[in-house]
Design goal:
The complex is a heterodimer of chains A (218) and B (243). With 218 residues, chain A is α/β, with parallel strands linked by helices. Chain A is built from 7 helices and 10 strands. In chain A, strand 9 and strand 10 (195-201) form a beta hairpin. The chains are: A alpha/beta (218), B mainly alpha (243).
């Protein structure tokens, strides 16, 4: 089910975010310059800030719900340190959402088996994968991702992006990297001055360069 | 090199003025020293642990609409500690005033306050917790400016106390810093305790009394021993908690 955004408006100081309509059925990547409002858009959709307009997820209007009840998993550029051991953290999240039976599958998918018993000393890439694992276990209506690969090396970036491509859920993805956008997007939207200037369907032009980089680095 | 030189000068000044020169007067502390240190360690640790949750909650609030309100937690750090002691004393004496004026229910509260709070262990805990709040608040406030753990954890469905405790564990470095700093600071707390809860004597009250009764030598001995013990324990605790 799509993530639908209608007449979303938010004012923060002199900055004004306004998105008339955006329907996220698959992976929609938002690109734009610094300060164009990409993160503010995700924050407004997630419910970090109270915005006017409608956000529909899983077929229900979640605009008036608090962030924790919207069913939107929000992955950020700086992944958080898991609160305690990885296995315990994932179990806690799974318990909240009744997905305990999926922990094994998610752990295998993301290759986290070897760090399950650890509570600290993770690389940024490992932390981001742990964050993604926790997000997957919430069975969200949609994913919001704010430059999630900005601190990852090429190999981890490719791994992360391939997982994002396999999610089969609406993903609203913000990045500065046009190659990354071309690699994962079904459509790419350009944001400027708080507004989506245009959205275009993506052609798989960025695939080749990623494949070549992968050959080079693996 | 410049950084090392500046740090070196600061460290040298502190060591010279607070360790090397006073050590000339060193005399062993009189009886009661160990008890006062253990009492301070226990109550300081408990107060630091208690102050973590409200400190974090206020820091989270400060990131939202209630930023001005959250700054209220700085009050204990802004006014002199003796004033905090006086203000606490005034607050806890309100039931007594009401009791004198004939408000019956307040008499029981007044009896509890004089029997269990003022100049009692509970009073020490309250005073130390109040004084620890600005520290835990400011450390978490700084940590939250760097990281948006709250946003991610909320999107996972965390809320209320579950969110607070998850944040506390996720911001482990800040939590350890806040705890250790508040605990260390509790050893130096004199003003508020002198006015509000001077008995049983904590390390600071003990050193103050020793200085009044026995003079500089034993007070220097007690002070330097406290410095050595707290410095060593804080270092070990910080290393252990940061694993």
């Amino acid at each position: 089910m799509a993530l639908e955004i209608e007449k979303l408006e938010l004012k923060r100081g002199s900055f004004h975010l306004r998105v008339d309509r955006l329907e996220v059925n698959s992976i929609v990547v938002v690109v734009g310059r610094n300060g164009s409002g990409k993160t503010t858009l995700l924050d407004a959709v997630a419910g970090v800030y109270r915005a006017s307009g409608r956000v529909v997820a899983c077929g229900r209007d979640v605009s008036s719900l608090p962030q924790e009840k919207r069913g939107l998993a929000y992955i950020q550029s700086i992944p958080i340190e898991p609160p305690g051991r990885v296995d315990k953290f994932l179990r806690d999240v799974a318990k909240l959402h009744g997905t305990e039976n999926q922990i094994g599958e998610v752990v295998t998918q993301l290759g986290l088996g070897h760090i399950l018993a650890r509570a600290s000393g993770f690389s940024t890439g490992q932390r981001q994968l742990i964050n993604l694992a926790a997000a997957l276990l919430t069975k969200p209506c949609a994913f919001l991702m704010d430059e999630p690969t900005s601190h990852l090396d090429w190999i981890n970036k490719k791994k992360f992006l391939d997982i994002v491509k396999s999610l089969e859920k609406p993903v609203l993805y913000v990045t500065h990297d046009p190659l990354e956008a071309m690699y994962i997007a079904n459509s790419i939207c350009v944001m400027d001055n708080g507004q989506l200037k245009k959205c275009i369907p993506n052609t798989p032009g960025g695939l080749e360069i990623y494949k070549r980089a992968e050959e080079l680095l693996t | 090199m410049t950084n090392a030189a500046i740090a070196g000068v600061a460290i040298a000044i502190v060591i010279l003025l607070l360790v090397a020169l006073p050590a000339v007067y060193f005399e062993p502390p009189p009886p009661g020293f160990l008890e006062s240190v253990l009492l301070t360690a226990a109550f300081g640790g408990l107060a630091a642990a208690i102050a973590l949750t409200p400190g974090l909650a206020a820091a989270m609030l400060a990131r939202k609409r209630w930023s001005a309100l959250a700054q209220v937690l700085y009050i204990p750090a802004v006014v002199p500690p003796t004033s905090v002691g006086v203000l606490l004393l005034a607050s806890f004496y309100i039931p007594r005033s009401l009791c004198i004026e004939g408000v019956e229910w307040s008499c029981g509260v007044a009896a509890f306050v004089s029997g269990h709070v003022v100049n009692k262990p509970l009073g020490i805990l309250i005073a130390m917790t109040i004084m620890a709040l600005p520290l835990t608040f400011s450390i978490y406030d700084g940590a939250l400016r760097e990281e948006r753990a709250e946003v991610f954890l909320k999107s996972l469905g965390y809320s209320g106390l579950r969110l607070l405790f998850a944040m506390m564990r996720s911001l482990k470095t800040a939590t350890v810093s806040a705890f250790v700093f508040a605990w260390v600071r509790s050893f130096g707390e004199l003003g508020v305790l002198l006015v509000f809860a001077s008995y049983p004597p904590t390390a600071s009250i003990y050193i103050y009394n020793v200085w009044l009764i026995y003079g500089v030598g034993p007070a220097v001995g007690a002070s330097l021993t406290v410095v050595a013990v707290v410095f060593a324990v804080a270092y070990v605790v910080r290393r252990w908690l940061s694993r």
